[in-house]
Write a structure and sequence with these properties.
Blueprint: H1 7-19, H2 35-63, H3 68-90, H4 92-117, H5 121-145, H6 151-173, H7 177-205, H8 218-245, H9 251-273, H10 275-300, H11 304-326, H12 333-355, H13 359-387
Helix pairs in contact: 2-3, 2-4, 2-6, 2-7, 2-8, 3-4, 4-5, 4-6, 5-6, 6-7, 7-9, 8-9, 8-10, 8-12, 8-13, 9-10, 10-11, 10-12, 11-12, 12-13
Protein backbone atom coordinates (compact mmCIF):
# COMPACT_ATOMS: atom_id res chain seq x y z
CA UNK A 1 0.00 0.00 0.00
CA UNK A 2 1.40 3.43 -1.03
CA UNK A 3 2.10 5.96 1.69
CA UNK A 4 0.09 9.22 1.47
CA UNK A 5 1.99 12.29 0.29
CA UNK A 6 3.32 14.34 3.16
CA UNK A 7 2.02 17.94 3.60
CA UNK A 8 5.52 19.42 3.15
CA UNK A 9 5.99 17.62 -0.15
CA UNK A 10 2.58 18.83 -1.36
CA UNK A 11 3.52 22.41 -0.48
CA UNK A 12 6.81 22.14 -2.38
CA UNK A 13 5.04 20.63 -5.39
CA UNK A 14 2.53 23.49 -5.46
CA UNK A 15 5.31 26.06 -5.33
CA UNK A 16 7.14 24.42 -8.23
CA UNK A 17 4.01 24.17 -10.36
CA UNK A 18 3.12 27.81 -9.65
CA UNK A 19 6.58 28.92 -10.77
CA UNK A 20 6.33 27.15 -14.12
CA UNK A 21 5.23 29.24 -17.12
CA UNK A 22 1.75 28.64 -18.47
CA UNK A 23 3.27 27.21 -21.67
CA UNK A 24 4.53 24.25 -19.62
CA UNK A 25 0.92 23.05 -19.52
CA UNK A 26 0.23 23.65 -23.19
CA UNK A 27 -1.24 27.17 -22.85
CA UNK A 28 -0.32 29.57 -25.63
CA UNK A 29 2.46 32.08 -25.07
CA UNK A 30 1.42 35.76 -24.77
CA UNK A 31 1.35 37.59 -28.09
CA UNK A 32 0.33 40.92 -29.58
CA UNK A 33 -0.73 39.17 -32.79
CA UNK A 34 -4.37 38.26 -32.28
CA UNK A 35 -7.41 39.33 -34.33
CA UNK A 36 -8.71 41.36 -31.38
CA UNK A 37 -5.35 43.09 -30.81
CA UNK A 38 -5.20 43.83 -34.55
CA UNK A 39 -8.56 45.59 -34.37
CA UNK A 40 -7.69 47.47 -31.18
CA UNK A 41 -4.48 48.80 -32.71
CA UNK A 42 -6.10 49.73 -36.02
CA UNK A 43 -9.04 51.50 -34.40
CA UNK A 44 -6.75 53.43 -32.04
CA UNK A 45 -4.48 54.34 -34.93
CA UNK A 46 -7.11 55.76 -37.29
CA UNK A 47 -9.01 57.59 -34.54
CA UNK A 48 -5.85 59.13 -33.10
CA UNK A 49 -4.84 60.15 -36.62
CA UNK A 50 -8.15 61.99 -36.97
CA UNK A 51 -7.37 64.09 -33.90
CA UNK A 52 -3.97 65.38 -35.02
CA UNK A 53 -5.06 65.94 -38.62
CA UNK A 54 -8.00 67.97 -37.31
CA UNK A 55 -5.66 70.10 -35.18
CA UNK A 56 -3.40 70.71 -38.18
CA UNK A 57 -6.30 71.45 -40.57
CA UNK A 58 -7.78 73.96 -38.11
CA UNK A 59 -4.44 75.75 -37.71
CA UNK A 60 -3.83 75.89 -41.46
CA UNK A 61 -7.36 77.13 -42.17
CA UNK A 62 -7.07 79.88 -39.55
CA UNK A 63 -3.72 80.99 -41.02
CA UNK A 64 -5.01 80.74 -44.61
CA UNK A 65 -1.83 78.74 -45.24
CA UNK A 66 -1.00 77.61 -48.78
CA UNK A 67 -1.18 73.96 -47.66
CA UNK A 68 -4.58 74.32 -45.95
CA UNK A 69 -6.33 72.48 -48.77
CA UNK A 70 -3.99 69.49 -48.63
CA UNK A 71 -4.26 69.36 -44.83
CA UNK A 72 -8.03 69.12 -45.25
CA UNK A 73 -7.67 66.48 -47.96
CA UNK A 74 -5.58 64.39 -45.58
CA UNK A 75 -8.20 64.70 -42.86
CA UNK A 76 -10.84 63.56 -45.39
CA UNK A 77 -8.66 60.61 -46.42
CA UNK A 78 -8.63 59.52 -42.80
CA UNK A 79 -12.43 59.88 -42.73
CA UNK A 80 -12.62 57.55 -45.74
CA UNK A 81 -10.63 54.95 -43.80
CA UNK A 82 -12.88 55.18 -40.74
CA UNK A 83 -16.05 54.96 -42.86
CA UNK A 84 -14.66 51.93 -44.71
CA UNK A 85 -14.16 50.14 -41.41
CA UNK A 86 -17.79 50.85 -40.47
CA UNK A 87 -18.91 49.56 -43.88
CA UNK A 88 -16.93 46.35 -43.48
CA UNK A 89 -18.62 45.67 -40.16
CA UNK A 90 -22.16 46.96 -40.64
CA UNK A 91 -22.72 47.57 -44.35
CA UNK A 92 -22.83 50.52 -46.73
CA UNK A 93 -26.06 52.05 -45.46
CA UNK A 94 -24.76 52.18 -41.88
CA UNK A 95 -21.47 53.63 -43.13
CA UNK A 96 -23.32 56.39 -44.98
CA UNK A 97 -25.28 57.32 -41.84
CA UNK A 98 -22.08 57.31 -39.80
CA UNK A 99 -20.19 59.34 -42.39
CA UNK A 100 -22.89 62.01 -42.44
CA UNK A 101 -22.47 62.64 -38.73
CA UNK A 102 -18.67 62.36 -38.88
CA UNK A 103 -18.43 64.90 -41.72
CA UNK A 104 -20.81 67.23 -39.89
CA UNK A 105 -18.50 67.11 -36.86
CA UNK A 106 -15.53 68.19 -39.00
CA UNK A 107 -17.56 70.88 -40.80
CA UNK A 108 -18.68 72.35 -37.48
CA UNK A 109 -15.10 72.53 -36.25
CA UNK A 110 -14.17 74.44 -39.41
CA UNK A 111 -17.19 76.73 -38.85
CA UNK A 112 -15.73 77.43 -35.42
CA UNK A 113 -12.40 78.34 -37.01
CA UNK A 114 -14.07 80.71 -39.47
CA UNK A 115 -16.15 82.31 -36.72
CA UNK A 116 -13.02 82.85 -34.63
CA UNK A 117 -11.20 84.42 -37.56
CA UNK A 118 -14.20 86.71 -38.15
CA UNK A 119 -14.44 87.50 -34.41
CA UNK A 120 -18.07 86.38 -34.53
CA UNK A 121 -18.80 85.20 -31.01
CA UNK A 122 -22.41 84.29 -31.78
CA UNK A 123 -21.29 81.98 -34.60
CA UNK A 124 -18.69 80.41 -32.31
CA UNK A 125 -21.37 79.65 -29.71
CA UNK A 126 -23.66 78.25 -32.39
CA UNK A 127 -20.93 75.91 -33.66
CA UNK A 128 -20.10 74.80 -30.11
CA UNK A 129 -23.74 73.97 -29.34
CA UNK A 130 -24.07 72.08 -32.62
CA UNK A 131 -20.93 70.08 -31.81
CA UNK A 132 -22.46 68.98 -28.49
CA UNK A 133 -25.61 67.87 -30.29
CA UNK A 134 -23.52 66.06 -32.89
CA UNK A 135 -21.67 64.10 -30.18
CA UNK A 136 -24.98 62.93 -28.75
CA UNK A 137 -26.23 61.98 -32.21
CA UNK A 138 -23.06 60.06 -33.08
CA UNK A 139 -23.19 58.16 -29.79
CA UNK A 140 -26.78 57.12 -30.57
CA UNK A 141 -25.88 56.03 -34.12
CA UNK A 142 -22.98 53.90 -32.92
CA UNK A 143 -24.94 52.44 -30.00
CA UNK A 144 -27.71 51.42 -32.42
CA UNK A 145 -25.13 49.61 -34.53
CA UNK A 146 -23.52 48.00 -31.50
CA UNK A 147 -25.53 47.66 -28.26
CA UNK A 148 -22.32 46.46 -26.56
CA UNK A 149 -21.07 50.03 -26.82
CA UNK A 150 -22.30 52.09 -23.88
CA UNK A 151 -23.97 55.19 -25.31
CA UNK A 152 -23.46 57.50 -22.31
CA UNK A 153 -19.79 56.60 -21.92
CA UNK A 154 -19.19 57.10 -25.65
CA UNK A 155 -20.99 60.46 -25.69
CA UNK A 156 -18.92 61.63 -22.72
CA UNK A 157 -15.69 60.68 -24.47
CA UNK A 158 -16.75 62.30 -27.75
CA UNK A 159 -17.49 65.53 -25.88
CA UNK A 160 -14.08 65.45 -24.20
CA UNK A 161 -12.48 64.84 -27.63
CA UNK A 162 -14.23 67.92 -29.01
CA UNK A 163 -13.30 70.00 -25.97
CA UNK A 164 -9.62 69.18 -26.44
CA UNK A 165 -9.78 70.10 -30.12
CA UNK A 166 -11.40 73.43 -29.32
CA UNK A 167 -8.92 74.09 -26.49
CA UNK A 168 -6.06 73.39 -28.87
CA UNK A 169 -7.42 75.73 -31.51
CA UNK A 170 -8.39 78.46 -29.03
CA UNK A 171 -4.87 78.33 -27.60
CA UNK A 172 -3.38 78.57 -31.07
CA UNK A 173 -5.61 81.47 -32.13
CA UNK A 174 -4.84 83.37 -28.90
CA UNK A 175 -1.09 82.79 -29.14
CA UNK A 176 -1.12 80.48 -26.09
CA UNK A 177 0.86 77.81 -27.87
CA UNK A 178 1.75 75.75 -24.81
CA UNK A 179 -1.95 75.21 -24.21
CA UNK A 180 -2.48 74.47 -27.91
CA UNK A 181 0.00 71.58 -28.02
CA UNK A 182 -0.88 70.14 -24.61
CA UNK A 183 -4.52 69.95 -25.72
CA UNK A 184 -3.53 68.49 -29.10
CA UNK A 185 -1.72 65.64 -27.33
CA UNK A 186 -4.70 65.08 -25.05
CA UNK A 187 -7.04 64.99 -28.04
CA UNK A 188 -4.82 62.39 -29.71
CA UNK A 189 -4.65 60.20 -26.61
CA UNK A 190 -8.37 60.48 -25.89
CA UNK A 191 -9.40 59.74 -29.47
CA UNK A 192 -7.11 56.70 -29.61
CA UNK A 193 -8.78 55.58 -26.37
CA UNK A 194 -12.18 55.95 -28.05
CA UNK A 195 -10.96 53.79 -30.92
CA UNK A 196 -9.74 51.10 -28.51
CA UNK A 197 -13.04 51.23 -26.61
CA UNK A 198 -14.98 50.77 -29.83
CA UNK A 199 -12.75 47.84 -30.80
CA UNK A 200 -13.50 46.15 -27.46
CA UNK A 201 -17.25 46.47 -28.02
CA UNK A 202 -16.97 45.15 -31.60
CA UNK A 203 -15.05 42.08 -30.45
CA UNK A 204 -17.75 41.42 -27.85
CA UNK A 205 -20.43 41.84 -30.52
CA UNK A 206 -18.75 39.48 -33.02
CA UNK A 207 -16.63 37.05 -30.93
CA UNK A 208 -16.47 34.38 -33.64
CA UNK A 209 -15.16 36.90 -36.16
CA UNK A 210 -12.18 37.50 -33.87
CA UNK A 211 -11.56 33.84 -33.00
CA UNK A 212 -12.70 34.37 -29.42
CA UNK A 213 -9.69 36.57 -28.66
CA UNK A 214 -9.88 39.72 -26.52
CA UNK A 215 -8.60 43.27 -26.70
CA UNK A 216 -8.06 43.25 -22.94
CA UNK A 217 -4.56 41.83 -22.59
CA UNK A 218 -1.35 43.46 -21.42
CA UNK A 219 0.26 42.51 -24.75
CA UNK A 220 -2.50 44.25 -26.76
CA UNK A 221 -2.16 47.34 -24.54
CA UNK A 222 1.60 47.45 -25.07
CA UNK A 223 1.13 47.17 -28.83
CA UNK A 224 -1.27 50.11 -28.88
CA UNK A 225 0.90 52.27 -26.63
CA UNK A 226 4.06 51.68 -28.64
CA UNK A 227 2.35 52.43 -31.93
CA UNK A 228 0.66 55.48 -30.44
CA UNK A 229 3.92 56.96 -29.19
CA UNK A 230 5.81 56.31 -32.43
CA UNK A 231 2.94 57.56 -34.57
CA UNK A 232 2.79 60.81 -32.59
CA UNK A 233 6.54 61.18 -33.03
CA UNK A 234 6.12 61.14 -36.81
CA UNK A 235 3.35 63.72 -36.90
CA UNK A 236 5.12 66.07 -34.50
CA UNK A 237 8.49 65.68 -36.24
CA UNK A 238 7.03 66.77 -39.56
CA UNK A 239 4.90 69.53 -38.02
CA UNK A 240 7.92 70.88 -36.10
CA UNK A 241 9.92 71.05 -39.33
CA UNK A 242 7.08 72.92 -41.04
CA UNK A 243 7.01 75.43 -38.18
CA UNK A 244 10.80 75.85 -38.30
CA UNK A 245 10.67 76.29 -42.08
CA UNK A 246 8.05 79.03 -41.76
CA UNK A 247 9.70 80.65 -38.71
CA UNK A 248 6.31 80.29 -37.03
CA UNK A 249 5.87 81.75 -33.52
CA UNK A 250 4.66 78.40 -32.18
CA UNK A 251 7.81 76.53 -33.25
CA UNK A 252 9.29 76.37 -29.69
CA UNK A 253 6.05 74.93 -28.32
CA UNK A 254 5.70 72.38 -31.12
CA UNK A 255 9.31 71.34 -30.44
CA UNK A 256 8.53 71.08 -26.71
CA UNK A 257 5.64 68.76 -27.57
CA UNK A 258 8.02 66.59 -29.60
CA UNK A 259 10.44 66.56 -26.66
CA UNK A 260 7.65 65.37 -24.36
CA UNK A 261 6.95 62.55 -26.79
CA UNK A 262 10.66 61.63 -26.67
CA UNK A 263 10.53 61.63 -22.86
CA UNK A 264 7.56 59.25 -22.96
CA UNK A 265 9.36 56.87 -25.34
CA UNK A 266 12.43 57.05 -23.10
CA UNK A 267 10.32 56.17 -20.05
CA UNK A 268 9.07 53.06 -21.87
CA UNK A 269 12.67 52.00 -22.51
CA UNK A 270 13.54 52.62 -18.86
CA UNK A 271 10.65 50.43 -17.74
CA UNK A 272 11.64 47.61 -20.09
CA UNK A 273 15.44 47.71 -20.20
CA UNK A 274 16.67 49.88 -17.33
CA UNK A 275 18.20 53.32 -16.89
CA UNK A 276 21.34 52.67 -18.93
CA UNK A 277 19.46 51.56 -22.02
CA UNK A 278 17.02 54.42 -21.64
CA UNK A 279 19.86 56.94 -21.57
CA UNK A 280 21.40 55.44 -24.72
CA UNK A 281 18.05 55.45 -26.51
CA UNK A 282 17.38 59.06 -25.53
CA UNK A 283 20.74 60.20 -26.87
CA UNK A 284 20.26 58.37 -30.15
CA UNK A 285 16.66 59.47 -30.60
CA UNK A 286 17.47 63.12 -30.00
CA UNK A 287 20.36 62.78 -32.43
CA UNK A 288 18.05 61.85 -35.30
CA UNK A 289 15.68 64.71 -34.47
CA UNK A 290 18.69 67.07 -34.58
CA UNK A 291 19.66 65.56 -37.95
CA UNK A 292 16.27 66.52 -39.39
CA UNK A 293 16.69 70.07 -38.16
CA UNK A 294 20.23 70.27 -39.56
CA UNK A 295 18.93 69.03 -42.90
CA UNK A 296 16.23 71.71 -42.91
CA UNK A 297 18.71 74.48 -42.05
CA UNK A 298 21.00 73.36 -44.87
CA UNK A 299 18.03 73.22 -47.26
CA UNK A 300 16.98 76.76 -46.39
CA UNK A 301 20.57 77.95 -46.83
CA UNK A 302 20.98 76.15 -50.17
CA UNK A 303 23.88 74.24 -48.60
CA UNK A 304 24.08 70.92 -50.45
CA UNK A 305 27.12 69.76 -48.48
CA UNK A 306 25.21 70.37 -45.27
CA UNK A 307 22.24 68.39 -46.56
CA UNK A 308 24.50 65.44 -47.42
CA UNK A 309 26.21 65.61 -44.03
CA UNK A 310 22.85 65.53 -42.21
CA UNK A 311 21.74 62.55 -44.30
CA UNK A 312 25.01 60.75 -43.59
CA UNK A 313 24.61 61.26 -39.86
CA UNK A 314 21.02 60.09 -40.10
CA UNK A 315 22.20 56.91 -41.83
CA UNK A 316 24.69 56.30 -39.03
CA UNK A 317 21.88 56.79 -36.52
CA UNK A 318 19.80 54.16 -38.32
CA UNK A 319 22.65 51.66 -38.08
CA UNK A 320 23.24 52.37 -34.38
CA UNK A 321 19.56 52.31 -33.46
CA UNK A 322 19.16 49.01 -35.28
CA UNK A 323 22.10 47.52 -33.36
CA UNK A 324 20.62 48.83 -30.10
CA UNK A 325 17.30 47.16 -30.86
CA UNK A 326 18.47 43.77 -32.16
CA UNK A 327 20.93 43.38 -29.28
CA UNK A 328 18.03 43.56 -26.84
CA UNK A 329 15.13 41.99 -28.70
CA UNK A 330 14.48 39.02 -31.00
CA UNK A 331 14.24 41.10 -34.19
CA UNK A 332 15.34 40.46 -37.75
CA UNK A 333 18.30 42.79 -38.32
CA UNK A 334 17.66 43.46 -42.01
CA UNK A 335 13.96 44.17 -41.58
CA UNK A 336 14.58 46.36 -38.53
CA UNK A 337 17.22 48.37 -40.38
CA UNK A 338 14.89 48.85 -43.35
CA UNK A 339 12.04 49.98 -41.09
CA UNK A 340 14.24 52.55 -39.34
CA UNK A 341 15.62 53.83 -42.64
CA UNK A 342 12.12 54.12 -44.08
CA UNK A 343 11.03 56.37 -41.23
CA UNK A 344 13.90 58.73 -42.03
CA UNK A 345 13.01 58.68 -45.73
CA UNK A 346 9.40 59.67 -45.00
CA UNK A 347 10.45 62.67 -42.91
CA UNK A 348 13.05 63.83 -45.44
CA UNK A 349 10.45 63.57 -48.22
CA UNK A 350 8.05 65.65 -46.15
CA UNK A 351 10.73 68.33 -45.61
CA UNK A 352 11.76 68.52 -49.25
CA UNK A 353 8.24 68.58 -50.65
CA UNK A 354 7.06 71.22 -48.18
CA UNK A 355 10.01 73.43 -49.09
CA UNK A 356 9.21 72.99 -52.78
CA UNK A 357 5.50 73.70 -52.34
CA UNK A 358 4.45 70.17 -53.32
CA UNK A 359 1.98 69.87 -50.46
CA UNK A 360 0.19 66.82 -51.80
CA UNK A 361 3.48 64.91 -51.53
CA UNK A 362 4.11 66.39 -48.07
CA UNK A 363 0.86 65.12 -46.61
CA UNK A 364 1.14 61.79 -48.40
CA UNK A 365 4.52 61.32 -46.72
CA UNK A 366 3.00 62.36 -43.39
CA UNK A 367 0.20 59.81 -43.60
CA UNK A 368 2.39 56.98 -44.90
CA UNK A 369 5.01 57.79 -42.25
CA UNK A 370 2.43 57.79 -39.46
CA UNK A 371 1.03 54.41 -40.47
CA UNK A 372 4.52 53.00 -40.96
CA UNK A 373 5.51 53.84 -37.39
CA UNK A 374 2.47 52.04 -36.04
CA UNK A 375 3.66 49.00 -38.01
CA UNK A 376 7.08 49.44 -36.40
CA UNK A 377 5.33 49.53 -33.03
CA UNK A 378 3.62 46.25 -33.89
CA UNK A 379 6.96 44.54 -34.53
CA UNK A 380 8.73 46.01 -31.51
CA UNK A 381 5.92 45.19 -29.09
CA UNK A 382 5.74 41.57 -30.26
CA UNK A 383 9.51 41.26 -29.82
CA UNK A 384 9.21 42.66 -26.27
CA UNK A 385 6.47 40.17 -25.40
CA UNK A 386 8.55 37.30 -26.77
CA UNK A 387 11.59 38.47 -24.82
CA UNK A 388 9.68 39.00 -21.57
CA UNK A 389 6.63 36.68 -21.63
CA UNK A 390 6.41 36.68 -17.85
CA UNK A 391 5.47 40.36 -17.87
CA UNK A 392 2.49 39.75 -20.17
Amino acid sequence: MKKPLRPLFLLMLCLVLTALPATAFGASAPTTKTPAADLRTTMAKVHGEHAYYTVIAMQKRFDKAPDAGEAMNTLNANSNTVAMMVSDLYGKSAAQTFRSGWDAHIALLMDYVDATAAKNDAARKKATAALRANAAGMATVLNNLNPKLDRKTLEKNLLVHEQYLLQSFDGYAAGKYGTAYAAAHNAYARTAKIGAMMATSIVKQFPARFDGTTTQTDAAYLRQQMGQGLGEHTILSILVLQKAHDKAPDYPNAKAALDKNTAALTATHRSLFGAGAAKTFNQQWNRHIADYQAYLRATLAGNEAGRKAAKADLADFVAKLTAFQVNRLPLDKTMTYQANAMHGAHVITAIDSYHNGNYSKTYHALRIGYNHMWMTGNDLSEAVVKKMPGRF
